[in-house]
## 1
Amino acid sequence: MDKTTSGWLNGFLGVLIFSGSLPATRVAVVDFDPVFLTAARGAIAGLLALALLLAFRQKRPAHGDLLPLVVVAISVVVGFPLLTALALKHVSSAHSIVFIGLLPLSTAIFGVLRGGERPRPAFWLFSCLGSALVAGFAMAQGFTASPVGDLLMLAAIVICGLGYAEGAALSRRLGGWQVICWALVLSLPVMGALSLFTMPATLSGIGGPAWIGLAYVSLFSMLIGFVFWYRGLAQGGTATVGQLQLLQPFFGLMLAAGLLHEAVSWPMIAVAAAVALCVAGARRFAR
């Protein structure tokens, strides 16, 4: 398997795993405070990451890699989980998932700024078209219903795109799973302390679905998904493989409908199908 194909395969597996993040977060914030959920998922994943680094005797990152790792930690360990958890207090997971269609454009822009990638003009056409479809749908369906939730989701998309691009560049030097593990370990002292500080006074009222949601976002969304995702971005290119995120709303909407019984309208499905075509077009003209 050539490097580009491997990159797309790893990226696709990462997107599949991430597709469950927003539905799982939606379930978890029913019983957990968003700040506690963010801190707890980071602390749990950080402890697992520390164990992995010690088990495989990984060398410490070079001094020049510390600042980029801090950016990754702030972006994908703290920023995106916290902003989405807060947003999901105002909007449904089905609604928030549609915003994920904007993430490929954000990732591509930061991939150019931070990674020096230069996709062809036609690539930007398909990327912008897919993002415009998603943004237009979100604004038409529910922007006025909860502007706070939508603005939080937009902020999450921007900061996440930065974290993806920065992590992809680091993955070429450190390796995909090492990047997310070091970012988690760097944030572990703060996330651990914050999780203890914001822990609910009693856990007796926490339902089973909330615990399952916490487990999913801690293990899969915060760690395992990034192993595949950062490797895919490093192998196939941040801007190009990042377009796979346009498929994430489709998978996420299916999960939201099947597991949470949330309403999924035909316009939602139509947008998801249209952006899937944009992914194919972006891949065709990526280089």
Note: The chain has one domain: 3-284.
## 2
Amino acid sequence: MTVRFRLKRATALYGTYAAIAVAAFAAAFTAAMAASAAFGSGKTSAFDDLNRSRPLVSLGSESQCERYGGLPARWRDDPRAGMVHLRGGDFVFGSKLGYEDERPAGGGKTHVAGFWIDQTDVTNAQFAAFVKATGYVSDSERQGGAVVFHTPTRDEMNARDLAWWTWVKGAAWNHPSGPGSTLDGRLNQPVTMVTQADALAYAHWLGRDLPTEAEWEFAGKAGHEGADLDTAPRDEHGKPSANYWQGVFPVLNTNEDGHVGLAPVGCYAANDFRLYDMIGNAWEWTRDVYTGPHQSHTNGDTAAVAPLGRKHDTPMVIKGGSFLCSRDYCVRYRAASREQQEADLPASHIGFRTVSRDAS
């Protein structure tokens, strides 16, 4: 299958989209193990026996994600609460079907060692617990604002490029729409408007780290290879299996996936490693500096609306796409997708999850 991408307001030509078969996971561990026991040429799943009998987060449907309070079982009692263990292994790091900066590293297999990883994005509830325990003040609060998405009017679209982005004074992780807005009803959503430093501060509080780009992609691909990884995520019934943009970006979202903006974590089926929302909903910080061919900011260069005179910090790799990725603009709702984001620039479509690596 040939996939061609044209950047910056051009239509991304994906050819014929194949429906993605997404297995439904039963709550019991045995069903989860059966679903992920084998992939590609009879390999053993990286989702291993260290997960046996652990109280894994049970999500994957609208009713479950709506009921979820945002804190995994045994939160703060179990140092691995809300995480699964992956034994590591070899995988194809990158894609031959996407953008130029996604070409496979080294032309072959890349190895990652074993690690634990959060089943979901870090939620507002989890980040709030961190702030309460430590008194941490986020970068968005220090900077006095953050970059926020809104659906632009026709006049705004005619007046300026990237009209869907606005620097909102007073916007922060706990004031997601600006002054006066709160986290009421949003504690189970991914925390956003956090910088890479904020994400690292939270991770270090728990004795963890942010994933490398390779670790994140290994987890996101969940043992699979092939062209299906580069198609729009849909289940066996043709319904979107992730929170991304359907319709004409940025003015019309048809809400086919059930969510116009951020969704609570875990509203869609997990991948074969029992990880939720690796694709869509919110981009996720990694610990890696962005290197390689630099594509234009097809998620919209958020730095363009930051306060004048603000220095641009080091571009870091973010992964997974967000609720703003669409067929006609971003096309980064794929495990191999990568984007650059200034390390110190908080935005309303970027969150994170943490990892804990095995001792070498």
Note: The chain has one domain: 29-357.
## 3
Amino acid sequence: MDREWGSKPGSGGAASAQNEAIDRRERLRRLALETIDLAKDPYFMRNHLGSYECKLCLTLHNNEGNYLAHTQGKRHQTNLAKRAAREAKDAPAQPQPHKRKVSLRKSVKIGRPGYRVTKQFDPETKQRSLLFQIEYPEIEDNSKPRHRFMSSFEQRIEACDKRYQYLLLAAEPYEIIAFKVPSTEIDKSTPKFFSHWDPDLKMFTLQLYFKIKPPEANKPQPAPVANGTAPPGVPPRPLPPPPQAPPLPPLQAPPPAAPPAPVMNPPRPPPSAMVGSQPPPPPPVANGPPGPIPPPIGGSAMANFTPGLQGLQAPRLPPPPPPPLQGFPGQQMQGQAPRPPQPPPNMGH
């Protein structure tokens, strides 16, 4: 036969006692790796040679798996029991602290009570307040409702929100009810914060006032909105002062004008300008200021025309007085209107 006696066909033969011990230690090592933390084991020590020692059993191990398999063995477990018994015998007897046993009362809840909440505002102190009125018609005899404040981080019903807190009210056999109020400091002064239980009407009344928040000095300004408008509920911001114009530079005297250049062969005035007692206008000077506009002469159509000022109407001036007559009476002066003919004198008729 090519196989050992007692083994099944296809198997490697019956395991010897040594193979079974190796397999058992490997299973214990894997189990210990999953359940035991070597960092918390007081008897686990690594020496200078790189191997591991058990300080309780004084054994040497090559790796962590070997030490963990040792901790699950009979020798290590027996030494642990002996060490615990010796420590319990040597330790002095100490009095056990008195623990108060609180018996949880199990009662049947009948539902939630009726309630009424009133919001109030004090115009003098600018404080807001809440008035709670809870009705407990089926409350147990000789019992009063209880209340307490709970932080948002203490409860497990809703998501934590630091902006709110809870006011809890309890009375047997009713369910515990809670009110979600702002997480503002409550004014605990006597006239403002009070609770009262009316045994005749079976009504519990609780009133609380919130303290006024101090003004924030370093409060950031709200972000501006498009088109220069402010968000609703925010007063409009004052307009900035208009920018100041830069100061004007001091006035400087104009540079002196150049002396007039001599005019060679000035043009003679027309004959019509020589008639009369008015002097002729001065000739134009190059690179100089324009002279005054001479008054019109005569009643011609070109009297109001000024050379070089086309499109600019000169102001009308009163006509000058007529010049004195010169020459013979019967001679017609140039530039004057003709006289009407006179009738001949009477020749004796």
Note: The two ends are 203 Å apart (CA to CA).
## 4
Amino acid sequence: MGEGPTIGTIAERAGVSTASVSRVLNGLPTRPETVRKVLAAADELGYVPNSAARSLKSRRSHQVAFAMADIGNPVYLEMVREIQPVLKAAGYRLVLHSTGADVAEEIEVLRSLGGRYADGLILIPLRLTAELAAAISAARAPVVVIGSVPEEAGVDNVRTDSRLGVRLALDHLYALGRRRIAFVNGPLDTVPGAARAAAYRDALAALGLPYDEKLVEVGDFYRAEGAAAVRRLLAKGPDVDAIMCANDLIALGALDVLREAGLRVPEDVAVAGMDDTDLAAGAWPPITSVSLGSAERGRRAAELLLARLADDASAKAPRKVVSVRPELVIRASTKGGTR
């Protein structure tokens, strides 16, 4: 069997030096015209790079990890759709980790960076403990956190203001004449759960509405748990005319239960969610939801990480914080029920 194409044969076909071919194949800065010639020649000759040898030489895996709570959550899928093409264009593969929001699992992913299985990590922690913050700070590769992270962790951060998002939704419901606005939340020991609980109280106070424990239920950020929480809410018998849900999956569960109870949406009870996922847009009725810019947050996180990986000078630059502003997307689950 004959030997495959080499750097020398590619250089001969492209009409450039072997050094230029080496620079292109190793992803080093090179003139665009040279890159075009080398890649065209490599393709014509059927060159397949030895990625293992190249990784050993460069001490790079050319992989980036993305650790999230639940790979089935549409919010994270939307982020993946933005992250992957950004990384692919820069020559990186994307490795996914579904951690189940387990802090120990997230810490293990961070520590495994020392083994160089990935050159960097994008992390979305739901529960930010002191131990996790310390592991983020000590990571032996660049880390970008989507969500809140203490400044002393020293890593780039992409965040959104979910508290403002709750306020936008409650202002909208209030403007429609709703005054008994219930709130169904996820676990209070999570970063989003705690933030959205505080935001609900603050928004009620700003609108001059009393806080009523009967109007509040806590479950989890899933459809079935959201439905169970809404059943508990209705069983308490409050005069509910709107339900603010901490995410779209809870809002879908709310629609299920309200239909079971013979209540019309939005005529009897308006429903609003958070995240503005495809599921919210495709529900019946379509769900009013607060967009937290999931796609943009994913894209910006990938760009921040690539900047850190670009060179040693970038790796030592001060941490960057990117904020994505929430927006209310109004649909039929609320707008048809003006009183």
Note: Residues 51-58 have pLDDT under 50 and may be disordered.
